[in-house]
Specification:
It holds the Pfam family Peptidase_C48. The chain has 180 residues and is of the alpha+beta class. It is built from 8 helices and 6 strands; from the N terminus they run H-H-E-E-E-H-E-H-H-H-H-E-E-H. The strands form 2 sheets. A 4-stranded mixed sheet has the order 1-2-3-4, with helices on both faces. Strands 5-6 form a two-stranded antiparallel ribbon. The C terminus is likely disordered.
Length: 180
């Protein structure tokens, strides 16, 4: 399925123009990612939980990706691309892997060092929530103004309609319009 979509939506030329390709991976509810740096001929694996299972996923992805490129775009035999696990900040026994992965991506794109820590997750969650509210077309740009303090104090609650009972906050919760 992924290979079919990639073949339909990504041209060989566009792929070869990319300096870096960032690919999120999810397994058993854990989000991690692979970065391909073309000129270095390397794949880098980023995960907030060190585990041979996730490293094996990244290796499997690399092998399938290289096979896809060779077979679908009829490129000559590609040189072996090494997979290197990057030392990243590690999450605690929490469900913050998605927050870590998004911040890994942001840091890579912005060419900054990765500095997220478990204690930062509420702040980042608030920042991402604010950005999503802004995408929905309303109100203040909290993420842009750096005012995530109010977002981090929002009344988060379980939404039983969402799979796995994820935590949500409504715009009213964030703006303080709902009584505590």
């Amino acid at each position: 399925m992924v290979a079919k979509r990639m073949k339909e939506n990504v041209s060989q030329q566009k792929l070869l123009e990319c300096e870096r390709i960032l690919i999120p991976i999810v397994r058993s509810g854990h989000w991690h990612m692979v970065e391909l740096v073309r000129e270095e001929k390397k794949f880098y694996h980023y995960s907030s939980i060190k585990s041979l299972i996730y490293t094996a996923d990244a290796t499997k992805f690399r092998n399938k990706f290289m096979s896809f490129i060779q077979s679908n775009w009829r490129l000559r035999k590609l040189e072996h691309h090494v997979l290197e696990s990057v030392a990243t900040p590690q999450q605690g026994p929490t469900l913050d892997c998605g927050i870590f992965m998004i911040e890994f991506i942001n840091n890579i794109v912005e060419k900054q060092s990765i500095t997220i820590s478990e204690g930062d997750c509420a702040k980042y969650r608030a920042k991402f929530c604010a950005a999503l509210f802004d995408l929905r077309g309303g109100g203040e740009a909290w993420a842009d103004s750096g005012d995530t303090e109010r977002m981090s104090r929002a009344r988060w609650r379980r939404d039983p309609t969402l799979k796995w009972g994820r935590m949500v906050a409504t715009r009213a919760d964030v703006e303080g319009e709902v009584a505590a």
